[in-house]
Amino acid sequence: NPTEPTTVKAAGPADSQQTEENLCVIKGKLETLKALTQAPPSVKKLSGETLPAASSTPPKNQELSLRKDILTLVVRCAGNETESLLSTIRDIPLVGKDEQDTQQIITNSIDRALRTYRSFEEDIAALETVEGAKAHAVQIAEWRESQHLPLAETARNFILWTNNQNLIEKARTRLLQIKQSIVALRLTQNEAVQLSFERARTFLLRADDEHIRARQSIERSEVPDRSLDHLKQSLGELYRTYGAFLEVTDVMRKALQE
Predict the structure, then answer these.
(1) Helices and strands (H and E) in the chain: how many
(2) What is the pTM of this model?
(3) What b/e string do you get for 225-249 counting C-beta neighbours within 10 Å, with b at 16 or more?
(4) 8 Å CB contact between 193 and 248
(5) What is the pLDDT along the chain (258 residues), one digit of tens a residue?
(6) Which of 65, 106, 141, 206 ranks highest by number of CB atoms within 10 Å?
């Protein structure tokens, strides 16, 4: 059944190489369901007509029970991963009000997703027909695809954003230290030093601007790729910032040797 995956991948923070512990494996149950529901070979009459075998219908109670077991496993696995993601986001220490507000928006959304998974599990327990179980599987798959997976991507982007925030803060500190050194070494009137310093400052301003855009995108619940693109742009500008730091330091050294 295309709506019942053999594995449910973790929706929370994860390394690119998923380990078996990060997956809820339901392959065995799916194979059992397939064997149960697969019709036996048809019986052919001498005239060439084809008649279905008499036992082509699986026991409904057994099929329903198995489908409910599979759905429950999928929903519990996804719910546990969602709870882990919620805990990760909540535990991120943030100082600024803007980032705290964004953090709260995300945690509220994840909490709603967690309640939805719990509601799904309650609905599964009340299923009474195979047809109802199939329809519920489709409903869960569609909701997960359209609602939860984009939210999980956004949450991961927010985690990346907080890491980027630390890098930007360190770059700001480094820029201030360089400025203080320029003043202390009386190089404020040196044109080459000032140009290289302004170059580094400009790169950092661009990095910070893209960083802010990423947070705003996350806060507005835009498609995850948009905030990720801003983060990539910010990291690129940070890379250029640190290259400019090396440049200004070298220019300062040469100025002192003149």
Answers:
(1) 7, 4
(2) 0.76
(3) ebbbbbbebbbebbebbbebbeebe
(4) yes
(5) 444 444 444 444 444 334 334 446 666 666 666 666 775 544 444 444 444 444 444 566 888 888 898 899 899 999 999 999 999 999 999 878 988 999 999 999 999 999 999 999 999 999 999 999 999 999 999 999 999 999 999 999 999 999 999 999 999 999 999 999 999 999 999 999 999 999 999 999 999 999 999 999 999 989 999 999 999 999 999 999 999 999 999 999 999 987
(6) 106
